[in-house]
Amino acid sequence: MGTPFRYALVGVATAAVVGMILLAAAVTQTAGQTPAGQTPLGPSQLQTQIRRLPSGKPDLNGIWQALNTANWDLEGQGGGPSPVLALGAIGATPPGLGVVEGGKIPYQPWALAKKQENYKNRLQLDPELKCHLPGIPRATYLPYPFQFFSSVSLGKERMAIVYQYSYARREINMGKPTEAPIDTWMGWANGRWEGDSLVIDVTAFTTPILLSPEGPPSEHWLDRAGNFHSDALHVVERFTPLGPNHLAYEALIEDPKVFTRPWKVSMPLYRRLEKNMQLLEFKCPEYTEELLWGQYRKQPGK
């Protein structure tokens, strides 16, 4: 790492002036005004911008990513220092406005206490630390891209979502809803279209399981702050195109074992437009081998 930056007073003053200019420009374009040379887009024009399959349904093929702090904490928070002193600002929690509609997750009293205990022990308990599959909806707002694959062949619609993190993937059943053959980390997904919105109904999440001899059981976390759910989770996701390069994402979350009522998260998703953009191999199972299994390595001479 390099030495810390030393900001000159002139640089700070310049940044302040630029910020004031940008703020002034933004203020002059408020109240529904459209920048000079542009005309506002109506609903019909937005509809024509949506990429569509031959079937007429929105074409979601491509690579998408959330740009927010939801994976650090679904609720709004002011940021905080790294739980590992040596990581300094690299490991700090960035501040975020939150993505929970209404602001707070409606925990049952015992579950709120468990969430707080999770946070205190997050360096030992967070499944992300161990490269476990993230589940739904967490897979959507991890700080890694994911890719939609969809097609229609012989009248049958096929859809899958592949995530860069931890080799996670799921196939979306777009036919008649079916029951899950087994419970899984990523749940069982039945999809349907409601207008231009892709609606995915997700159930059948696995119970916490013991993945190492010492434990504790690996549970389902919704973020790094210790927010969690049980195997009774039911998620209804909605992916709605806002144009060619943006999706509105919503997830209605219901878990009668943990929460007092259903609640919702919502956020925009952005299409990755870099040249030759592709999902790369994030080998987090290999990256965590020493953490999880290093103590069992056979030592020379023993």
Describe this structure in words.
With 302 residues, the chain is α+β, with helices and mostly antiparallel strands. It has one domain (46-294). It is built from 7 helices and 11 strands. The chain has helices spanning 9-28, 43-49, 109-120, 122-125, 138-141, 284-287, 289-293; strands spanning 62-65, 146-153, 156-163, 169-172, 188-194, 197-203, 220-221, 228-229, 234-241, 246-254, 263-271. The strands form 2 sheets. The protein has a 9-stranded antiparallel beta sheet. It starts with 8 loop residues before the first helix and ends in a 9-residue tail after the last helix. Residues 1-39 have low confidence and may be disordered.
**Helical segment count:** 7
Work out the radius of gyration.
22 Å
Helix content: 10-25%
Provide the domain count.
1
* Main pleated-sheet profile: 9 strands, antiparallel
Q: Helices and strands: which structural class?
A: alpha+beta
Strand content: 15-25%
The N- to C-terminal Cα distance equals 38 Å
The 3D shape can be described as: globular
